[in-house]
Amino acid sequence: MKTCLCALLRAGTAAVLAISATVAGAGPIRSTGAMTFADANTLIVADWRGGELHALTLPPAGAGAGKTFNLKSASGQIARALRTQPEKLRFEDLAFRPGADLAYISLVIDQGAAAPRAALVSMDSAGKVTVLDLAGVRHSSVSLNNPPGGDKRLWRDMPEATLTVTDLVLHEGRLYVAGLSNASFASTLRVYDFPFKGGGVLSSIEMYHPVHNELETRAPIRKMAVVNLNGEPTLLAAFTCTPLVTIPLKDLKDGAHIKAKTIAELGWGSAPAGMVTFDAGQGPMVLLVNSHKSADLMSIASIAEAAAGPGVTTPIKWPAEPLQGLRSIYIPMAGVARLGNQNKDFFGALRRNQESGAMELVSIRKGAFLRLSDFVNEYDFADFKYGAEDPWRQIHGVLRTDEGYPDLAKRAVP
Fold first, then answer.
1. What are the distances in angstroms from CA 153 to CA 84, 109, 163?
2. Is residue 400 classed as helix, strand or coil in its secondary structure?
3. Span 71-78, mean pLDDT?
């Protein structure tokens, strides 16, 4: 195993990170990235180009009725509203407004030789798109100090600064911000009081990656959630390729260098695309969706048990034994681009249609973890008859109704 960088370098990194962020004047919104709702009327948006976080005050919205999203060409509808072509859209993040049947989507619009254009839209379950006026929306802001240098590139043309903020989580009046800084230990967690009222706390993050057999300090957290483990509020975080780590919130102090505990290796060759916590009647759970493999379902109880142990400290046996530590439950939700908690009954997902390539915005019932209309099987033929005791009869009727096929739900009646 390769050893960590020397203690002297750590001390220097801590000194750099100890420079506090400051509350900024509400400057222009130059880019729209990771998002989270602070309350029903306040949306926090990361702006890597402007080097700030913005808390947007949204116009009032009507109360939701728990409607499902079944939008098979969301990208086309959004492109028309933005007066561009679907292939020019780059989808950044997805967040659902509490108490309303509204999805908010942050985007980048490719403009060729010109600088990309930022956009933020809302979309209801009927497909109506509303474009938010980024120049006119009322907002407060806070600076993101020590962002990566603007001249640094990944894969030739990807600015490293696009990873200044990779995820946002609000917990008990504090905003946790994952991403990169310009320090030698680039993987960073910033913490701000919210509403914004002062400087932020910056900590650098180190973790052991069982696939790479490395102690890593550069690649950022990609998705995270705050969970209670054995009475300790803890950040649960997933990195690319796919180590899962825990960090007690009490350890996040200004200038600290954090050694996260790796509790699982969930599989190489994929990137986290969404992490949500929920309870569908079987106790608190965490669902992690991934870019190139099936999703991972884990109970909070199993995560707490793994966090109480010694953690994972040895490499996997590639490729025959790709997993280590906490074992997740396989969930057939591969290919999801972004995932959010729509409401108590549904997840909401942005995903590509495999045939058309269009970006869809769809609801997925919690506890079922799939959309029945994605498949054709024995149950779907018109002459199939359910038996009275068929265990799938009721759930098939519910899912067909969820997905916009109430006429076909009648087939579930024996």
1. 27, 20, 11
2. helix
3. 98
Q: Which of 342, 360, 323, 309 is nearest to 86 (CA)?
A: 360
The Cα 321–Cα 273 span in angstroms is 23
Whether residue 340 contacts residue 348, with contact meaning beta carbons closer than 8 Å, is answered with yes
Domain definitions of the chain by residue range: 7-365, 375-412
Q: Judge if pTM exceeds 0.85.
A: yes
Structure tokens at 394: 């009721």
Per-residue DSSP letter, 310: -
Question: What secondary structure, in 3-state letters, does 20-57 show?
Answer: CCCEECCCCCCCCCCEEEEECCEEEEEECCCCEEEEEE
Q: Give dist(CA 379, CA 312) in Å, integer.
A: 43
Distance CA 108, CA 32 (A): 7
| 403: amino acid identity, one letter | E
CA distance 348 to 342: 5
213/220 Cα distance (integer angstroms): 17
For residue range 40-69, list pLDDT tens digits in order: 999 999 999 999 999 999 999 999 899 999
Fold type of domain 7-365: Tachylectin-2; Chain A (2.115.10)
Distances (CA, A) of 114 to 120, 221, 243, 348, 369: 19, 30, 37, 33, 41
Please name the residues in contact with 231: beta carbons below 8 A apart, sequence gap of 6 or more.
none
User: 82 in helix, strand or coil?
Assistant: helix
Separation CA 104–CA 286 (nearest Å) = 22
- Whether the upstream peptide bond of residue 319 has omega within 30° of 0, thus cis, is yes
Burial 56-87 (b: 16+ CB within 10 A, else e): bebeebeebeeebbbbbbbbbbbbeebebebe
Q: Which residues lie below 8 Å from residue 84, measured CB to CB, with a gap of 6+?
A: 109
Largest separation between any pair of C-alpha atoms in the chain: 73
Q: What is the pLDDT of residue 156?
A: 94
Across the range 209-236, mean pLDDT stands at: 97
Helix (H, G, I), strand (E, B) or coil at 396: helix
Quick one: which H or E segment has residue 223? strand 223-229
